[in-house]
Amino acid sequence: IVATVLLGLVLTPALSQLQNVKVNRNFYPKTITINVGLGFQTLTLNSNNLVAIIEAQSAENPWTSVWNYETGYIATKLVQEGVCYISAMDRVLMPSFNSIALLAEETNNVKGETVLSNTIRYVVSRRPARELRAYGNDIFALCRGLPSFIAFEEGQQEGGNQIFYNQNACLRLDVLNLLGIDYCRAGKI
């Protein structure tokens, strides 16, 4: 009986400390799956380095996009083409890091409708991206070993020259039913 009482006295403070531990239910990385058209996309958020990774799983056009909110760059790997496009993040049109998961979950509940609120058109230049590490570790890991090119937002200029492109030669990505991203290949300058 004495041993039980002593054991109880020793364990009581330890057990009360365990009860005061709060569980963080918003642990990161956080992963959400969203239905988009005939396929689905997976959103993975990592708050430690402010990176969102979106993977589109479809038979016709699989792709992966990394949005690095810390460095301000996005990169998209087109799996079938074996190429990577890197561009500056348009923080006005793109959802913020803190709201992207909530917005994606809301649009996932709207069945059969596309809720694209914004569209960004990038023109892919013929200029290769160099020093991939400068864009962040996640973008480096995504694009390493692939031909990687810089993409400029439509209306921006590359080296003082206007970039021309064929509007019929654009690839459209519907990102999480939130944002349309068009990648258009540059023509001759």
UniProtKB/TrEMBL annotation:
Signal peptide: 1-16
This protein's UniProt keywords: Disulfide bond, Signal
Highest taxon of the lineage: Eukaryota
InterPro entries noted in UniProt: BRICHOS_dom, Gastrokine
Occurrences of domain BRICHOS (ranges): 57-151
Entry protein name: GKN1 protein
Residue stretches in coiled coil: none
Gene: Gkn1
Gene3D superfamilies cross-referenced by the UniProt entry: 3.30.390.150
